[in-house]
Amino acid sequence: VPLEAATLQPIPMEEFFSAPAAQYVLPILGEVPPGEAPDPKKCSPREYLEFYIFPVVLPGLAALLQEAEKEKCFEGKRTKFIPSDFLTEWLYNNNPKRKDESFTELFSIPFVKDWLKDHPRPPIPLSLLLSEEEASILIQSFWRGYRVRCDSEIQELRQWQRKFREERNITEIVKKFWTKQEAKGKLIKL
User: Per its UniProt entry, which superkingdom is the organism in (predicted)?
Assistant: First the structure.
């Protein structure tokens, strides 16, 4: 059999599943299956998923997708939105065992606090925190500053200031000043 003929034949999907694929239909969002909830310690894995996991997790995933769309995650490659953080916060606050408790932010959740003590996060890059408008203002202000510093009169002023600092030895004067201030502070503390 030629290689092309072997790769283009349809693959029977039933071989990959132990049960027919129609059996794996997910329930409607947030809907608990009809009937009485089984004992969580004695039921089958499928019943446990249908009665205890899916009714909580599926609405969380739907909320996650809505939030991701609101944060414009599907429009660019990079975003400040962290889906696992959102889902953790959502699941914690919508836990049926916490019905009457108030909303808790992600970094105030006890197990998150404990985790972050041992595993601190790197800061989010400024490029992800700024909006396009804020970033453009920042870039424009740096550009204007650069253009002003290139002006011949400003260059002359900066050279004069540098020369003045060197002649008057301003750095030594500042060091002496702060040494005196620190000495005064030590006397006051005693």
Answer: Eukaryota
